[in-house]
Amino acid sequence: MDCLFCRIVAGEIPSKQVYADDSAIAFLDINPWHVGHTLVIPRRHVDDLLSDPEALTEITPAINATARLLVDRLAADGLNTMSSAGVAAGQEVFHFHVHLVPRFAHRPGLKELFRHEPEVDLDRVYRQILSRS
Ligand code: 5GP
Ligand code: ZN
């Protein structure tokens, strides 16, 4: 298996998983643009959004549940969703994924979307998302 995200699904590579159901998993992006940046992926291998017409529908419940979880637990002011299909679109990992990017009032707007938050403590964010308080 040479697909990075298939290996994450299989548990061969560790990830900070925040949601899972029968069709999809969601885990924190290792290099977040903003606090709580998360990837939602189908459990089965699909190259990208364009290569399988069922894939987006299959992971939509996971997208909804994870978006609500992130916004609630991180007290986000907004959220971006995005998926890149193909090299020309900037896709780097060729297992279909939807980026969920919580947004906060102090860094608003699309121009700020791709500017990485400096020094995000992934462990702390992970604990905050999973906490019941
Ligand atoms: P793409 O550019 O293909 O839309 O996004 C790929 C995303 O996967 C990037 O935001 C990148 O930070 C993330 N990523 C790459 N390798 C890993 C990894 O090993 N673990 C996690 N959690 N995220 C990864
Ligand atoms: Zn894969």
Observed structural traits:
single chain; 133 residues; alpha+beta; HIT family, subunit A; five-stranded antiparallel β-sheet; binds guanosine-5'-monophosphate; binds zinc ion
User: Could you say what the CATH topology is called?
Assistant: HIT family, subunit A
The number of helical elements comes to 3
Give the helices and strands as they follow along the chain.
Answer: HEEEHEEH
Give the averaged pLDDT, no decimals.
Answer: 96
Biggest β-sheet, characterized? 5 strands, antiparallel
CATH architecture grouping: 2-Layer Sandwich
Structural class, by secondary structure, is alpha+beta
End-to-end separation in angstroms reads 39 Å
Oligomerization state of this entry? single chain
What percentage of amino acids are in beta strands? 15-25%
**Total number of β-strand segments?**
5
Hetero compounds: guanosine-5'-monophosphate, zinc ion
Q: Roughly how many Å is the radius of gyration?
A: 14 Å
| Spatial order of strands in the largest sheet | 1-2-3-5-4
**What is the count of structural domains?**
1
Q: Which percent range fits the helix content?
A: 25-40%
Q: Overall 3D geometry? A: globular
Uncertain residue ranges: none
CATH C-level label: Alpha Beta
Could you please describe the fold and organization of this structure?
The chain contains three helices and five strands. It has a single domain, classed as HIT family, subunit A, CATH 3.30.428.10. The N and C termini lie far apart (39 Å). A five-stranded antiparallel sheet has the order 1-2-3-5-4. It has 133 residues and is α+β, with helices and mostly antiparallel strands. Bound molecules: guanosine-5'-monophosphate and zinc ion (ZN). The site of zinc ion (ZN) has 5 residues, from α1. Guanosine-5'-monophosphate binds next to β2.
